[in-house]
Design goal:
six-stranded antiparallel barrel, 13 strands, Secreted trypsin-like serine protease, Peptidase_S1_PA_chymotrypsin, protease
Length: about 240
Amino acid sequence: MRALLFSALAALTLISPAFAIVGGRPADADLKAETAMIVSTRGASCTGVVLAPNVLLTAAHCVQPAADYAVVVFEPAGPRLIPVSRIAVHPGFDPASFDTRRPTPDLAVVKLSAALPADFRPATLTGEIALPARRTAFTLAGFGVVKDGDGKSAGTLRMVDLPSIGTTGGIMVRLSEGPAAGGCTGDSGGPVLLGGAVAGIIGWSTAAGGARGCGGVTGATLVGPQRPWIDATLRAMTK
């Protein structure tokens, strides 16, 4: 496991300094303290939201299929990996939902083998269960790429403001704005904030017109309706 994880770290160190989130801007210090980057031996990367010193909330598809996962901590001496030791996927999540277009809660809670550095802190999660009104303004953040297919642009936390354009099945909120802006590869699992609290977790994105890609619509699982599962899982992870 260690050899595989360090292979992932070696690949990460080759990423050029760049920005992520399509059409976004560098994230502020408060957001950086509540958000972490997740990598895997599958060569994929995602974003996670800090729930406790050693627990993150992310998207379920970010920790499937089976692989070794770790959080990257960027330190003065260079990136350091903290392996994921335990994963809990929301029982209602269906990996086939991306094909069937029937939304399910794309959420997972992961426990780390060691605590994050002291400059990280838990994010505030919303308890709101009502669906957001159309045009509600949200802020998205993630470590993903700035352009679909540009892997070298990942690794820097970016943020972007987008309004809601609707909801799906009482589970997800859809976000979009022109010109092209939104989540992209590597932003999955990142926070969707409303009033400083995490109201959703990024799950997917499309290009304009619903085509495969980025910069069209971003979908996120709403956190409020799933708080009972999130809170119970967090308690079990921190016993």
